[in-house]
User: Fold this.
Amino acid sequence: MRSLDMLRSMDLLSLIVLFWHACFLELPRYTIGAIAVLLTSRWIPERRGKCDDLSLTILLVGHNEAKTLRKAVEGLAEQTIAQKRGRLHIIVVDDGSTDGMTEIARELQREGKVAQVLCSHQRGGKSAGVNLGLTACSSDIVFNTDVDTTFDRDAFEIMLGYFADPRVGAVAGNLGVRNPLASLTTRHQAIEYAIGLTLGRSIADMLGILSIVSGAFGGYRRAAIESVGGHDVEVGEDADVTLKIRRAGWKIRFAQDAIGLTDVPETVAALIAQRLRWDRGIITIWARKFRSVFNPQQSAFRPLEVWAVLDVIFYQGVLTLAFPVYLVWLFYYFGDFAWTVIAATLIAYFLADILTFAIAAMSGALARPLRLLPYIPFYTIMQVTLMRIVRSIAIIQEVIFRSSYRDPFVPARVMRQVERL
Amino acid sequence: MPTGDNPFLMLGGSLSIVPDGDLLASSDQPPLGIILIGSVDSSELAALVEQLPDPAIPLADFGNNRELRRDFVGEGFDGSRIEQLKQHFAPIWRRLDEFPFRAGRDDRAEMTLLRLAYSRETMIEAKLAADAPPLVEYPMLGRSAAIRQRLEMLAGLDLLRRRHFIRTYVCGKCTSARLNVHEVCPACGGQDLADEALVHHYRCGWKEPESHFVDGRELVCPKCRRELRHFGVDYEKPGNVSVCRGCGAANAEPVVQFLCLDCAGVTPTVDARSIDWHHYELTEDGLRALREGRLPRFEIAPLLKGRTRAFSLQEFRLLATESLRISRRYKRPFTLARLSLANVDDLRGELGPLRMDLAFRIAVDAIVEALREADFVGADSATSVMIGFPETPADHVATNVVERVRSVIRKIIAVPLELAADITEGDAALDLLVEE
Assistant:
């Protein structure tokens, strides 16, 4: 009670000083952004247009996806764009599978459901697979999707509409969780995808700093992706190619209504493994590979690119590493009172999460959001504790050990050569 | 080999079209070939060939006689073609000259097939013939309803070797194989059917053909009115159904029927009889049968034909009934026996058709020779006979007659042919007769 009284007795400036981490680093990002999205959404002009003359190809690149390939192709046939155009042009790339994926693909090709099947007998990684698929594409737009991602029936039609603007080089689809009720971990991720992905990318899109088109569901203008030489071999190859396209002067858009669903890890261990990989990739791509965007001497220097990269570095890196500093500062100066501050911070985060989740849910991208509402406290705690620890470890691993260069996502033999060169 | 310039018999046209009159086969010498210079009726040709000493002589067709067997097909016959035909037929004549054609009257048609197969030195090949109701023909043999049956009989005797060609299905009404397969609605019999995906809405469990869900460009559940947005999450397509555009009925599978193109009869596929067509090759046993001029038949009835005291089964029954009546009246013994060659099929596989045929004939001879003047016999199946023994008790028949026949079989043919005997005396014989 004494702690609460103490809090109550503080003036606004003292409170801001006490909660500096939350006030300056955490809360502004999504809370202010979400409110801005909510308020401005009505005034943002329609970005989609008619694209009947644009041809499209869907690239399905996979490794050992024999079990899911048929379902994926049959799901694509359900797309409204497929029904409108008669048939989708699908290219399957088997990246060195050993489970008979090529045979399934060829079977689908015989059935007329797949236009082309390409196969590399040795696994070369996602980037190499997409690049191989690109060589077979002659359409205006290329969609790159994971084999295990499924889509709303109108997802591709919506995505295609954004390419009516000839300045748009890539469009990111909106990804949701297909298995939200499988476990507590998946519920957490369903909320995280809604806030971090649906809302976060909407904010980035509004500000013009969207810097990732997910490899699980993205569309590219072929001229744009070919102009930057396709994918490089990276753990976060999707972020890499997006930044390259941005730097080449193309616009990146987020199609909030184009929804794809993917299964997320059901256990904490699997979630940690996935996030370590993702976060390590982020450091490599944004901090290591694209630091040249900060160089004003470069001909491609543009403030928006600086902001885009800074946004990621700041919120993914600085903010994560600042939190332990803040905790140390709290306990050093306030002793046990720090627990009250932390509790108050958590409550503030919780309220902010409810707000942002509500705004994200209002977009309509989330199916039955109310059933996730009771789990927001759990989400808040997970984000502040586990996810932040995981990200810190990933940053340290990557900065010190360059761990992403040993990630099995890219075959070791390929990564060795990349590193050597 | 043919000699002279006139080995051919011409059919189907006026002789005046042949510039050289001596091209006709001389009347005292049988022709070595037949030239069809115009349209010839198959029965006319069959009647002619029936009279020839060798029914397998080669045949050249210049009259578009598609239904007849043909060794050479040409157009516009003139005398200059004779030399060409002679050269073409020379290998056939060489083979025919190797041994003369011999066949009993009953076996003539089958032996002709074997001789054709041998002299043409090739397989009897089946081919698709769209203009023939069975859909398959044997160009070497011509088109005839009985040909397949004869070939199958010869194959059954191991004289020809089968190689599967095609399976046809035939109309239940006219047996034509020229059928059109069509699907019909089980409800109304209509043929205006469309395949449609079945949609299963997970949330409310509704399952119907896709067209019932279509609402503009969206899919909306007809039960709960919710939109189905995401394949695999909101809904699935567990399969297809056949929807009748006539009556709207949806069925898992339409009924499949055959429509006969010849008689317009409809046969459900489940009721349609199938016929397997084969190519045939002459076997070693077939060649041996051809050389010996007889077919192994394994039937007792033809072997009893013409023998004294051998009767048809009907006559045998009358005689046996009368003998029984006399035996009852005068209290005299009368025995009725059924003798069967029990393991013919097993031994045929072991010994081959010709060796077994010989053993069979000897066994039948031994049975007939064991009979006395008063005994009478009738064949009651392919491999068994009924014998009536007037004035003879059953034990005498068992010890004297049956054992003697068995001993003869053992001695002469040295083949383990089993002779089964069912012997009854007096009124008990009536049971055997009635059973028969």
About this structure: Residues 15-25 of chain B have pLDDT under 50 and may be disordered. The interface with chain A takes residues 217-219, 228-233, 237 of chain B (CB under 8 Å). The CA atoms of residues 220 and 226 of chain B lie 6 Å apart. DSSP finds eleven helices and 22 strands in chain B.
